[in-house]
Write a structure and sequence with these properties.
Strand order of the largest sheet: 2-1-3-4-5-9-14
Strand content: 15-25%
Helix content: 25-40%
Radius of gyration: 18 Å
CATH architecture: 3-Layer(aba) Sandwich
Distance between the termini: 34 Å
Structural class: alpha/beta
Length: about 250
């Protein structure tokens, strides 16, 4: 089976490509670096020729509200048009849990992307994921004020990138759901508690303060803003195992 992975050289994309290739599939790791650009359209038709599945893992280089919206709308339209012409039978897109329950510009852009997919007529599966464990360091940095890191006490259920890639690959080979699948890590706890646990584990002396007013990408967080509300497929890698693997890789 020929599978095109848009964003195939990124964090999730490179792992997904490796899994699918190990399974014997013909996989195109598509990105601007490999001559395939979903914004300009460069290389799209060539990449899509003969493809049965397209996995969209593309991400905006900017988080500014207007820019990110333009990115996902332009990329989405270009991809779906090329897929329709090529007769692609399954469009898989990675999205985010709670984008319709938390108000910030990035989440609104992902909602717009999902709506394009749902209206395209191409069989699809949207995978909404919780935040990746790999981003805990960046989250702490963005919330830091000197030696204090202010994080919401709302619930958090981060997932390892290896689990995300495994699920994305599995979904790509399955029958399209024409709906949404939510995925999350196996452990749920207050956001502030998980960040504090991470900083302690890596020897970072900064203090985490649980602050109900702390924002997340500009949006206010309620207790269940960042976790699945209903049934979700859970990853297998818990925090401690992820940390052990990360240290081993380093």
């Amino acid at each position: 089976m020929k599978i095109v992975v848009i964003g195939g050289t990124g964090l999730i994309g490179s792992k997904t490509v490796a899994i699918l290739r190990e399974g014997g599939h013909e996989v195109v790791a598509a990105s601007p670096n490999t001559g395939v650009n979903s914004i300009t359209g460069e290389g799209l038709n060539e990449a899509m020729a003969g493809a049965q599945v397209v996995i969209d893992l593309a991400n905006s280089p900017s988080f500014e509200d207007k820019v990110v919206l333009e990115f996902f709308e332009t990329s989405g339209r270009n991809l779906l048009t090329a897929e329709a012409e090529a007769g692609v039978r399954h469009h898989v897109a990675l999205s985010i849990v709670a984008i319709d329950r938390t108000d910030n510009g990035y989440f609104r852009a992902k909602v717009a992307q999902e709506k394009l997919i749902e209206a395209s007529g191409i069989p699809y599966t949207i995978i909404r994921s919780t935040q990746f464990l790999e981003f805990l360091s960046g989250i702490a940095a963005s919330a830091a004020d000197g030696n204090i890191v202010r994080i919401s006490p709302g619930l958090f259920q981060p997932i390892a990138a290896d689990d995300v890639a495994a699920i994305v690959a599995d979904v790509a080979l399955a029958v399209p759901r024409n709906g949404i699948l939510e995925i999350a890590g196996p452990e749920r706890a207050p956001f502030s508690e998980i960040v504090a646990r991470y900083l302690k584990a890596v020897g970072d002396p900064r203090e985490v303060v649980s602050d109900p007013e702390a924002r997340y990408f500009g949006g206010r967080i309620e207790e269940y803003s960042l976790v699945p509300l209903g049934e979700a497929r859970l990853g297998r890698i818990g925090f401690d195992e992820w940390l052990r693997r990360s240290r081993a890789a380093a």
